[in-house]
Amino acid sequence: MSYKIPMGPYHPGLEEPYKLDMICEGETVKDAELNIGFNFRGIEHLAETRNYVQVIALMERVCGICSFIHTLTLCQAMEKLAGVEAPPRALYIRVVMAELERLHSHVLWAGIAAKLMGFKTMFMTCFELREKVMDALQAISGNRVNYSMNHVGGVNRDIEDPIALVPMIDELEREMMRTVIPIFTTSSTARSRCAGIGVLTHEKAVSCAVVGPTARASGIPQDLRRDAPYAAYAEMKFEVPVEQAGDVRARLFVRALEIIESCNIIRQALALMAPGEISSAPEKLIFATGTATSRVEAPRGEVMYSVSWKENSRNPARVHVRTPTYANMPAVRWMVRGARLADTPLIQASIDPCYSCTDR
Amino acid sequence: MTALDTNLDTNLDTIREKLGTAEPWVESRGTYWLDPGTARPRDAAWAMNAAGARFITITAYELPGDAGFRLEYHWDLEGRLLGIPFQIAGKTTESIVDIIEAADWIEREVYEGFAIVFTGRVFEPLMLREGDKPGVNLRVAPVQDEPASGLPGQKEVVQ
Q: For chain B, how far is it from start to end, CA to CA, in angstroms?
């Protein structure tokens, strides 16, 4: 006999508001329905009512974890319409901030995944490390969540002493290599909760067009930082970790390896950062009529903004945001099919979902 | 030109030929655009699937007056962002969900925001604003036969 078990929109096993209706037979999930929209704020509509300064502050609120990425993507699109290019130093600062945000997101995710595995000690360890990443973000921007770093044509704050940040990054990497990564990748607790669980096959991952670590854990070697470089990524040397298994463990591995790559990228960017201006924005910005798009590899995968402007307007005519969780979430239905009910919180968490982004 | 670029250009030419359009791909602000001519979104979906392109999204724009809508379909092909715009005069267009599974949620979102109906598919309840009416959030004026409820229909402008 089948029965439906609703999980959410507010449930201890879910970190954010959404609803997973699971059709079960015994303890086995046969199918699932996903319901989102509990955090809908109409941000795309609001964006049309804000001028070119206000819209940046607004879009920073699309997501709490990757707030920098959203303003970066928006500003890159607006720079194309305004015919403005950010100076080289600003591009390096954007790389540093984007990678710190990736570290922040991945460490936060590791903590939540540990909690869902019943591994509370690791949860506390990850959140302690997260504080250190936030300290670095605060040292640069003055803020711990919404950084207010981007504007059209550059960044708002300089990294005055780039070399001073290196020990902070080194210590972070040491801690990752010493505790988090070995325990996650070798402990029997993590293995038993993650290996062979929530498999998304390569074929299904291609069909669902998933992005980011979710795609890379299913054998899809895509990463915009390498495939369509923006900011100063063309000058960075890094690997794109790819796993083939498509299970929760593969998604965990990919993020663990990305943490190391992010530390490498930050060190490179800090070393290559030459003195210079951090903004090339003119006193008055004039936007061309038309549409511009921009894509950025956020911690959870590709973010894309389409921005449209009308002549002599201070406000965008349209801002469309395609967030990574919006692309990844439908695949959860396929991941939970055949899974044990008790594994579903961890499976849904393994895509690192963000409902603030998804609902907008 | 590298071997990768040559392969990519060949793929782009193949897509163009499959859509039967004589217009070339045009690069504008980092996106490669193709005028589809008389081709339909479903033709583009087939051609993109055959080329191995990854579907990204559909961006809808409401055109002034009664001109209808412009739907921009986006794909990624080997890191290159491709865009194919389709203009629709009324408020219906064909769904591509049976060809591209990944288009499901974005078609539902466009339906909710603009009340554009994608034919040939089943619409489940509203995704982002369950219990509300479609077309009240992103349309310039509320849809006449489906009056807005709870959300602003007229766009206020902050000066």
A: 48
